[in-house]
């Protein structure tokens, strides 16, 4: 039996193979597309988590800045009060004396 494209057996077999390859390619494309969509969703979720974490860190940082500012103001007021009580001491001596008193 000679092979010929017009032979019914060869034609059907060829169509099946072509259809099978085409199906595999379509499945591959769909799988790849789903994988890319999943990666995009994962990236979006990760970005959202990082955004919320950064926002939280920024808010905490702002609270700490305000607290540091208040402590600095309190420190300046105490230094001023201390210098009024001991006007004969210069600023460096006052600072050293305050540090020694804390320990």
Automatic annotation (TrEMBL):
This is Protein LITTLE ZIPPER 1-like. It comes from the Eukaryota. Residues 1-25 are annotated as: Disordered.
């Amino acid at each position: 039996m000679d092979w010929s494209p017009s032979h019914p057996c060869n034609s059907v077999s060829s169509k099946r193979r072509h259809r099978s390859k085409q199906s595999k390619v379509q499945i591959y494309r769909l799988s790849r597309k789903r994988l890319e969509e999943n990666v995009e969703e994962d990236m979006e979720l990760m970005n959202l988590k990082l955004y919320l974490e950064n926002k939280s860190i920024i808010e905490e940082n702002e609270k700490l800045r305000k607290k540091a500012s208040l402590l600095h103001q309190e420190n300046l007021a105490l230094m001023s009060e201390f210098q009024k009580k001991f006007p004969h001491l210069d600023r460096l001596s006052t600072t050293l004396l305050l540090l020694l008193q804390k320990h």
